């Protein structure tokens, strides 16, 4: 009996200490949930954006939601995000294991962490820069693709059509030029197949289903979450990339580097000669190529689509852009990056598209090396972090009347571009989007060229397409049916 009393006393003291420790650690608040399932209802794609905005308004920049005992921490607000991703960047650890790693066979750059991520991210940046990535000489390839793009728009002779597939194929060709050293015909079935698979992936509701957080659910009988169907589609992309890689290898010349694949094959050859084991495998290359296409295609093409949609809704802004272009760019040629400083209003329109288009409202998940204190809350090591970029873009203190399309918010009184550094489009810190500079180039050149050549109008007799988007991993327009009247 005495032993039992002592044991119960010890257990009671330990529980009290644990409880007091929890009280001392101020954990992020979370909304009430459903027993066992927690806050799973917050992930519904049709309401998630509005739900997250309400939770930020109620709880502040840092709050948590619990999904079947999995703690998901959402970090919002420019200052708080900057504090975490820049000032406290060292606390960010390996990426948590989510379903996207399954699709990429646990390889690549964006979906990996640690030494593998660091080595291959550095290699990718060096290689892409050597190919002109982020530099002005890549605009030749972009403008070449824009000419094909505009010719295809003209082929519709002003008849209304949904331009979304054409935009995707055109942006895919810019990426193809960098990584494959060639472009696909806009009618090419292989290019169309890859674009369709990747577009479907980014629009998929899988990002808002339990399997995204708990990949082991793929082993359940049937295909409740559509994961098996998606994995088969990604197997098809792997097959396409393998074929392209084989073609490259058969014509590879290390003294004549044509594209990113050649850069990789050259580095792979060096590693084979120097080491028994290394990470520059064919599987790693193929996963990286898929990531390039996924990130480069989806985010930029979606931004352009939002730009077209907002200009359909704002004819006066469209006219003002065109007037600025006509006053600056010599008739008969397309706008270039050299014209950009003289086109501040067009720049402001593009920045407003990046803000209000809100292509990636939330980043991919992050993990921590250890507990971290943020805004007075202790975020535990085992938690999964999501950076809420939407909370920056729609912050009324930073951007008054945030839901209105107003390019002039990025123009000073003397007409110069200002305030663009606060846009939450490409994240920040070490995980900032590698393709930021290319994406901005493409958006500016495609938008100004399209407006220079065509007037964009709504389909006659029909209501304007909705400004409400569809949320998958990215936030995309529902429809973009419009007519394009040629100016010259």
TrEMBL record:
A single Gene Ontology CC term: cytoplasm
Taxonomic classification: Eukaryota, Metazoa, Spiralia, Lophotrochozoa, Mollusca
Binding positions (heme) = 433
Q: Which protein family is named in the record?
A: Belongs to the cytochrome P450 family.
The name this protein carries in UniProt is Cytochrome P450 2F5-like
Query: What top-level branch of life does the organism fall under?
Result: Eukaryota
Cofactor(s) needed by this chain: heme
A single MF term (Gene Ontology)? iron ion binding
Species assigned in the record: Crassostrea virginica
Keyword flag Metal-binding: yes
Question: Which GO annotations describe the biological process of this protein?
Answer: organic acid metabolic process; xenobiotic metabolic process
The record, for PANTHER family, names: CYTOCHROME P450 306A1, CYTOCHROME P450 508A4-RELATED
Check the record and name the InterPro entries matching this protein.
Cyt_P450 (IPR001128), Cyt_P450_CS (IPR017972), Cyt_P450_E_grp-I (IPR002401), Cyt_P450_sf (IPR036396), Cytochrome_P450_fam2 (IPR050182)
Keyword entries, A-Z: Heme, Iron, Metal-binding, Monooxygenase, Oxidoreductase
């Amino acid at each position: 009996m005495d032993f039992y009393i002592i044991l119960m006393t010890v257990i009671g003291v330990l529980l009290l200490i644990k409880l007091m420790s929890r009280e001392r650690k101020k954990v992020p608040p979370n909304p009430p949930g459903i027993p066992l399932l927690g806050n799973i209802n917050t992930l519904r794609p049709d309401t998630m954006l509005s739900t997250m905005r309400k939770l930020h308004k109620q709880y502040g920049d840092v709050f948590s939601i619990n999904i079947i005992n999995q703690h998901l921490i959402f970090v919002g607000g420019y200052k708080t995000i900057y504090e975490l991703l820049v000032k406290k960047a060292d606390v960010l650890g390996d990426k948590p294991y989510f379903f996207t790693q399954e699709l990429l066979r646990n390889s690549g750059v964006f979906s990996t962490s640690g030494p593998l991520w660091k080595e291959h991210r550095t290699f990718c940046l060096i290689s892409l820069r050597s190919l002109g990535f982020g530099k002005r000489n890549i605009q030749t390839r972009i403008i070449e693709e824009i000419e094909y793009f505009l010719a295809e728009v003209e082929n519709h002779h002003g008849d209304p059509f949904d331009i979304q597939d054409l935009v995707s194929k055109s942006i895919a060709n810019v990426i193809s030029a960098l990584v494959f050293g060639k472009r696909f015909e806009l009618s090419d079935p292989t290019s169309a197949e890859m674009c369709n698979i990747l577009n479907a992936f980014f629009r998929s509701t899988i990002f808002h289903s339990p399997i995204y957080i708990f990949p082991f659910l793929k082993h359940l009988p049937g295909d409740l979450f559509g994961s098996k169907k998606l994995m088969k589609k990604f197997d098809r992309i792997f097959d396409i990339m393998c074929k392209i890689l084989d073609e490259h290898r058969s014509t590879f010349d290390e003294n004549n580097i044509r594209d990113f694949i050649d850069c990789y094959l050259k580095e792979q050859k060096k590693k084979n000669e120097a080491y028994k084991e290394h990470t520059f495998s064919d599987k790693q290359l193929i996963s990286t190529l898929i990531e390039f296409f996924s990130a480069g295609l989806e985010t930029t093409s979606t931004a352009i689509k939002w730009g077209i949609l907002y200009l359909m809704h704002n004819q006066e802004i469209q006219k003002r852009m065109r007037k600025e272009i006509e006053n600056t760019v010599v008739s008969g040629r397309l706008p270039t990056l050299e014209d950009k400083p003289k086109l501040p209003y067009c720049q402001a329109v593009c920045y407003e598209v990046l803000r209000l288009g809100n292509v990636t409202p939330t980043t991919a998940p992050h993990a921590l090396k250890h507990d971290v204190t943020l805004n007075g809350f202790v975020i535990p090591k085992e938690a999964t972090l999501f950076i809420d970029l939407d909370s920056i873009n729609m912050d009324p203190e930073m951007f008054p009347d945030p839901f209105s399309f107003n390019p002039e918010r990025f123009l000073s009184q003397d007409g110069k571009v200002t305030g663009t550094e606060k846009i939450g489009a490409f994240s920040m810190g070490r995980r900032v989007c590698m393709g930021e500079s290319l994406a901005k180039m493409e958006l500016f050149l495609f938008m100004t060229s399209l407006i220079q050549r065509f007037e964009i109008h709504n389909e006659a007799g029909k209501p304007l397409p909705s400004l409400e988007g569809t949320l998958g991993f990215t936030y995309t327009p529902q429809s973009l049916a419009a007519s394009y009247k040629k100016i010259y």
